[in-house]
Specification:
The protein is an alpha+beta fold. Among the domains are: about 35-60 and about 590-790, PH-domain like; about 320-455, PH-domain like (Roll); about 850-925 and about 940-970 and about 995-1039, PH-domain like, CATH 2.30.29. The chain is about 30% helix and about 25% strand. It is built from 27 helices and 44 strands. The strands form ten sheets. It has a 16-stranded mixed beta sheet that branches. Strands 9-8-7-6-12-11-10 form a seven-stranded antiparallel beta sheet, covered by helices on one side. A six-stranded mixed beta sheet has the order 3-14-13-19-17-18. The two termini are about 40 Å apart. One of its GO terms (cellular component) is prospore membrane. This is DEHA2G12804p.
Length: about 1050
């Protein structure tokens, strides 16, 4: 491994765009994915040359209209990109998108809760501390390896220092118990962290207090008073200390302002006769027999409730809230089902264990979590359909239920992270399927509810290493969790001989170092040495069957994910998988991904491939730009070419033609031979970082403004056209609009610039470049893009087919079971299955490209309409649909066209996405259909022209985007009342004076607008849903 240069460390802001990109990509990959090439010069028409007269005025007017029309869309794109790194957002302390642990556990009652927790946490006396420190040896955090060869556990030590409220920081483990919604300070007024240290308090280390006549007194002395000290795992000096509680006589004599509930006397010896001993033995036998019967009937309930530290903390936190007080509130999409004749309420997932009917369809509610009056039913959930602009807090909820210890909570779908709460009723169970707007909210809600109904709290990470048949069990010490609370707004970048070494989030870095250290110890094994060489930059991900979910660089999210996903997912440690930038051609050679190209071209054919339109020669200047396997184009005044220091983005066109060569390569992240970014350690870092994020925003905005696209994989040939075949009018317009010099019409090097693109359906796109040299560059580079992406798409499909066949072979299942794996219980285990990391890559999190996903999908906007196929592009903030063909308005027949024209742009920042079985409500039922060749199933095997075949049932292939409808109208009086009540914001003065007559608002509790998409396979559907959900999460990081 390359070693860092001595004293060569660069500190950059964590909120910078460069820090975000370097977290998930190495400098070489970052530089390659940021490049683009501008072919040809910029037309004088775009530069607003005064010589063109009327054309200049029309162009300027068109540009101004574009800015107004796309102002909202541009803002959405910029918010999506800048939210990824927190660029110029709120100054959140801590790491990652949510500002570290502190923002996960916000609450208005933090100070009161700290007092309660501090009261519980008077763990040890000075004398007891000396005993425990002298005799206690911690091996609780040791890692345990299991594999095909002998391994040794990696040990990690945990501090057992005495709690000092002045110097110690609050424990993140106990911070997880706080309700997480309202702002809560992590420091006291003096700047010191408040709370208590539980470094030496482990859930597994607490010895259960036995039920006896003195157990209540002992429990009271532990929980409610500071008169006794607790020693965990300390060697017992006598039989009386087996309970793990030691009473200090000196403490009991101290005075206390609080009224004691139990007085503890100093033990005194008592001489017993023979009759007393016989009577005591008989009584002891009778009591033990009765106690065994009681313990058997309790089914370990008493044990789980008796001395659980987490339960006691929750109980005391409970006292700081008033009955009915709101603990958390979020807007969610809710589906309610009812299951009859269910004796025992179990978890309710996609593979529904019992028959159920829909009680209430998908509707948007404000879901409120309140404190209930009974400790046995500690939480109450209420669903409100309050209007978005009302302040009426006395409205009755549409639905409400209490969360008792019999409620079962889990993820209904592991793909879209919808939450399922199964509430037992008299003759069945009510199932509430709640879909929060983003995955972060899903994790927080489910984790908080699960902890309250006493699910296990585990700090153990079970890490599997694919390729080595090796697993590592690590237990994170409290000291590492405490470090995750400490805010650090600086990313440390160490320069290596080649590339950089990045310091990741504290807990992730600790686990990564622990795994790599253990592998380094086993480097003598050839399998391990080979794995370390092939995986230079490993990262964590969760695997469920053949799907991967990569971990974001945030310790709090990672910790909660491990708590919630450990049962159904497998945590793996594998190399960061980006979409491969090379492919193997048919001849056996490897081809590297070509650099994206863009530039201005004159389009000489219309939508149908004709050179004449309205009896005139067709001639339009358009801006073409490629992204992955797509060639977009739009009107010339919508395009913005790349330029040095983003001069054209700032409308700085002075001398720009002299600065741009005929073929200009733009790279905001230039690197040297050692793969070091040239400006990373310069004083003008912020300027370069700003230019880099503006460049990605520019490229993403171009997709939103696209007029149409060409699928590069459908190109048959790109060839030049002799200039003798060009029309004089076309040559004249070229010289006039590009160079403002009509006399150049006789220059052969200028007018000999025609070429055409032939598509698979026989249609032709005829284009004209500004010169012969640029024409040849376009032909060469488009041909390279076509060859690369045709081979790449074929290899990606072969990878999916091989992965599926491997899973069918190893798990001994057929194609139907693999296609509908989410409905299977017995083969859903993640351990034996294989996943294709090239398809489920980390590119969407890392934003390696402005095209996050693209492909062919079927779509319908109404339940009873038919599915229509569209080419769909997912970019930052939007889902853009393009029509595949046009039909004749008179006959309805298909018309030949080389383009996919823009059809619909869907903003995804305010939508919900759900998939799988929950989309059944949006589809027509085909249960009446009978497939003679496939009885008992509702789908026939499908085979496609590229060789893919599968047998998914219809809901398994579908996902839905749900939008709230604007159905409410608010009047002037209500608007004035709303604005008059908001006195805190002085900026609303103008709004208070003129609130407007009426305006539309978003109503809750009503059915919304849903758009259903259908992929051709389960695998493609999971990729689409996962990447859309990741993009939606970006808008939630600054809420």
């Amino acid at each position: 491994m390359a070693s860092p240069y001595q004293d060569d460390i660069v500190n950059i802001p964590k909120s910078s765009f460069t820090a975000f990109r370097l977290t998930y990509q190495n400098p070489k990959l970052l530089s390659d994915t940021s490049k683009c090439i501008l072919l040809g010069s910029i037309p004088n028409l775009w530069l607003s040359d005064n010589k063109l007269g009327f054309f200049t005025g029309a162009t300027n007017h068109a540009k101004s209209k574009v800015k107004k029309r796309f102002k909202s869309a541009v803002g959405t794109v910029n918010k999506s990109i800048r939210s990824s790194s927190g660029y110029k957002m709120n100054n959140n302390c801590g790491e990652g998108p949510e500002g570290g642990f502190n923002l996960f556990f916000r609450g208005a009652k933090r100070n009161d809760i700290n007092k309660i927790v501090n009261e519980i946490a008077l763990e040890q006396d000075r004398e007891t501390e000396e005993i425990s420190n002298a005799n206690y040896e911690s091996n609780d955090d040791a890692g345990v390896l299991s594999g095909d060869f002998d391994t040794t556990a990696a040990s990690s030590e945990s501090s057992l220092g005495y709690y000092d409220p002045v110097t110690e920081v609050s424990s993140p483990v106990k911070s997880f118990f706080y309700p997480a919604k309202f702002d809560m300070k992590s420091q006291d007024g003096n700047g010191d962290f408040s709370g208590f240290n539980t470094e030496n308090l482990e859930m597994d280390d607490i010895v259960d207090l036995q039920t006896s006549e003195y157990s209540d007194a002992r429990r009271e002395s532990v929980v409610s008073t500071g008169e006794s000290t607790i020693v965990f795992n300390a060697p017992a000096a006598e039989e009386g200390s087996r309970l793990g509680v030691t009473f200090d006589p000196s403490v009991t004599t101290k005075t206390s302002s609080r009224k004691k509930k139990v007085e503890i006397a100093i033990p005194a010896p008592y001489e017993m006769t023979t009759e007393d001993l016989l009577k005591a033995e008989k009584e002891n036998h009778r009591f033990r027999k009765k106690f065994k019967h009681f313990a058997k009937g309790s089914r370990k309930v008493a044990k789980s409730k008796g001395n659980d530290l987490r339960s006691r903390i929750y109980s005391n936190i409970w006292k700081s809230y008033e009955v009915g007080e709101i603990m958390r509130m979020d807007k969610m999409l809710v589906l309610i089902k009812y299951a009859y004749n269910v004796s025992n309420a179990t978890g309710f997932g996609e593979n529904e264990p019992c028959d159920s009917r829909v009680y209430e369809r998908w509707k948007e509610y404000i879901v409120v979590l309140r404190k209930a009056e009974n400790i046995e039913a500690p939480l109450a959930v209420q669903l409100y359909d309050i209007r978005a602009t009302t302040n009426d807090t006395k409205t009755k909820p549409a639905f409400s239920f209490k969360i008792t210890y019999a409620v079962r909570s889990r993820f209904y779908s592991g793909v879209d992270k919808s939450i399922s709460l199964c509430v037992p009723k008299e003759n069945g169970a009510m199932i509430y399927i709640m879909k929060p707007s983003n995955q972060f909210t899903s994790f927080r809600w489910l984790h908080f509810i699960s902890q309250f109904i006493r699910h296990q709290f585990d700090r153990t990470f079970r890490v599997a290493i694919p390729g080595l048949k090796l697993s590592l069990i690590l237990r994170v010490p409290e000291s590492e969790l405490i470090k995750s609370l400490q805010s650090d707004n600086v990313l440390e970048v160490r320069r290596l001989e080649k590339g950089y070494k990045i310091e990741y989030s504290n807990m992730i870095q600790y686990l990564k170092d622990a795994v790599l250290t253990e592998l380094e110890r086993k480097k003598d094994f050839p399998e391990v040495a080979d794995w370390l060489m092939k995986n230079p930059d490993p990262w964590f991900c969760f695997k469920q069957y053949d799907r991967l979910e990569w971990v974001v660089n945030n310790s709090a999210i990672f910790f909660i994910q491990n708590q919630l996903l450990s049962r159904s997912f497998q945590l793996e440690f594998r190399n960061k998988a980006h979409h491969e930038r090379y492919t193997r051609m048919e001849q056996g050679d490897y081809m590297t991904e070509p650099t994206p190209i863009e530039g201005f071209l004159s389009r000489l054919t219309n939508t149908y491939g004709s050179e004449r339109s309205m009896l005139k020669s067709f001639h339009k200047i358009s801006y073409f730009y490629s992204a992955d396997d797509i060639l977009f184009f739009t009107k010339f005044f919508r395009g913005t070419p790349p330029s040095p220091n983003n001069a054209l983005l700032k409308d700085d066109t002075d001398g720009i033609l002299d600065k741009l060569p005929p073929v200009y390569e733009h790279n905001p992240f230039p690197i040297n031979s050692n793969e070091h970014i040239s400006w990373l350690n310069k004083d003008n870092f912020e300027l370069h970082d700003q230019n880099a994020i503006q460049e990605l925003e520019r490229r993403a905005q171009q997709i939103i403004k696209a007029e149409a696209l060409i699928d590069i994989c459908l190109i048959v040939e790109v060839r030049a056209i002799p200039y003798q075949n060009s029309r004089k009018a076309q040559n004249l317009l070229l010289c006039l609009l590009w160079y403002s010099a009509p006399e150049l019409v006789h220059d052969v090097s200028i007018v000999d610039s025609l070429f055409e693109i032939e598509m698979q359906n026989g249609s032709i796109v005829k284009l004209q470049a500004p010169s012969r040299i640029i024409r040849d560059e376009w032909i060469t580079r488009l041909t390279e893009l076509r060859d690369y992406w045709v081979s790449r798409r074929s290899n990606d499909l072969n990878g999916l087919i091989c992965t599926r066949l491997q899973n069918e072979k190893d798990l001994k299942i057929n194609e139907y079971v693999d296609s509908n794996i989410t409905q299977e219980n017995d083969v859903m285990g993640p351990h034996m299955a294989h996943a294709d990391s090239n398809m489920f890559n980390i590119n969407c999190i890392a934003m390696s490209s402005c095209v996050l996903m693209s492909g062919y999908l079927y779509q319908k906007s109404k339940k009873h309409s038919n599915f229509s196929q569209y080419f769909t592009v997912l970019c930052p903030g939007f889902l853009v649909l393009f029509t595949l063909y046009k039909r004749s308005k008179r006959t309805g027949t298909w018309k030949q066209s080389p383009y996919f024209q823009h059809y619909l742009t869907i903003p995804i920042s305010d939508c919900y996405v759900y998939s799988g079985q929950t989309t059944t409500l949006d589809l027509l039922s085909d249960e009446q259909d009978f497939h003679a060749g496939n009885p008992g199933q509702h789908s026939l095997p499908r085979i496609y022209s590229d060789g893919w075949k599968s047998s998914e049932e219809e809901p398994v292939r579908c996902f839905t985007l749900w939008f709230g409808k604007k159905r409410g109208i608010i009047g002037k009086d209500r608007a004035a009342e709303k604005y008059s009540n908001s006195k805190e914001n002085e900026a609303n003065t103008s709004s208070q004076k003129n609130p407007g007559l009426i305006r539309m608002i978003k109503r809750l509790g009503v059915t919304g607008k849903s758009i259903v998409f259908m992929a051709r396979s389960r695998q493609e559907r999971e990729i689409w849903v996962q990447r859309i959900a990741t993009e939606i999460d970006r808008f939630a990081k600054n809420e």
